[in-house]
Amino acid sequence: MKKVIDVKNLSFKYADEYVLKAVNFSINEGEFVLLTGGSGEGKSTLIYLLSGIIPNLIYGEASGEIDINDRNIINKKVSEICIDVGIVLQNADNQIIEKYVEDELAFGGENLGLKKETIEQKISLISKIFKLDRKAVCRKLSGGQKQKLITGSTLLMGQKIIILDEPLANLDEESSIDLMRILLSLTKKGFTVIVAEHRIDLIKPYVSKILKIENKSVIEMDISTYNQEEIKRIIINDINQKHCKNPIFSFKDINYSVKDKTILSNLSFDIYQGERALLLGENGIGKTTLMRVIAKLNKVKSGYVSYLKDGEKTLNKPDKKWFKKVGVIYQNPNYQLFMKTVKDEIYFNAFNKDYADYIIKLFSLEKLCDRHPQSLSEGQKRKVTIATILAMKPEVLLLDEPTVGQDYNSLKKLVEILNKIHEETGNTMITITHDKRCAEALCDRALLLKKADFLIEGDKSLVKEYFRY
Predict the structure, then answer these.
(1) pLDDT tens digits, 284-319
(2) Distance CA 139, CA 129 (A)
(3) Which of 114, 140, 283, 325 has its CA 20 to 30 A from that of 4?
(4) What is the rounded average pLDDT for all residues in the chain?
(5) Which CATH superfamily is domain 3-232 in?
(6) In sequence order, what are the residues at sequence separation of 6 or more whose Cβ sits closer than 8 angstroms to the Cβ of residue 254?
């Protein structure tokens, strides 16, 4: 088989710290490759090297060879490399340029000089495959829909080597399986696909090769036995399920829409003080919108919303006092990191210095304290944003896809920390997740949003039913 990627004695370091050292591997045409490894081991770094983002856009020192189609791309321009290589990054927002979906899909093809008729045909096909409204405004899409959009935009460009960095992070299970099938079908047409991903249970049935980054090296794993037990593991909740009775939020016939699109319609439900509520539903159904309503970041068009603990009759405009009570973890950690060091970030709004130090120790962030937050891996950034909000000791904790970028061991530790803090503080915790590995362990009560006007309430059995295990 023809080698399309041949990596020889590749080493890379940021400043004085090596991330990869004397790496050697090859990938053949038509292979579907899973790139795996622990959080922060260097998966994104390797992807950036293969696509030319390093060293063109992110500084670092590389040595060795990366041959793509028999051409060494080390120190080549991104514009030269992208003829062969398409990349889908973890952070969808960083890749979206245009206002409307159809323009975003067309952008890459236009830059590559594809014919107008070809672009139009591909837009129609990709919009249908990914269930995207081509007239929709990009910034109004959910996190999962944005992930589908940038994946579709990359596929439209037609490069024969496609690299995806955690494409399943914000996708529901059905969308994840659909994407894997699409990628597998492309490999049968001569495309080469590389996916960096922690949700191994969803991707393993489709791949032909597994490469693991460990101790700065890349090792090819036995696909038949790799993580056979781990992919079936569900993190079990080790604290007693609560049955709380005192509402802290009450929603009565709430409605929310954007222009002519109804997102929430006549929904009524309560969130109870001290519970762990899990919010489930497919991509684009309105989960993040509902969480933003709870956080006072979105104002309902009509209906009655109350924050009952302090006797408020309505959720008015948020203020500094409100965000001392309510801590929000967004899907994109980059929106919440702005200080010069990790330590400064966690200290910034902390309950007090001693409590901040306690949180740092819980997350084992001591070695990262002097690092700039934006220099971290996506998984590390996620830990820092969660640690920063927990250090505030909020009464209400809102978590939108908190598990992004976490391998199984990191995820297990994260769940343990969230439940430990919940037990210690008695906070109310509301979580959105598509990650079945941890959903049950973060749940006392499940809320499944089926349609704009249809929400099902249940216990842990609803979680098992939704994820089908």
Answers:
(1) 899 999 999 998 888 888 888 887 665 555 455 677
(2) 20
(3) 114
(4) 89
(5) P-loop containing nucleotide triphosphate hydrolases (3.40.50.300)
(6) 264, 266, 267, 268, 293, 300, 302, 303, 304, 305
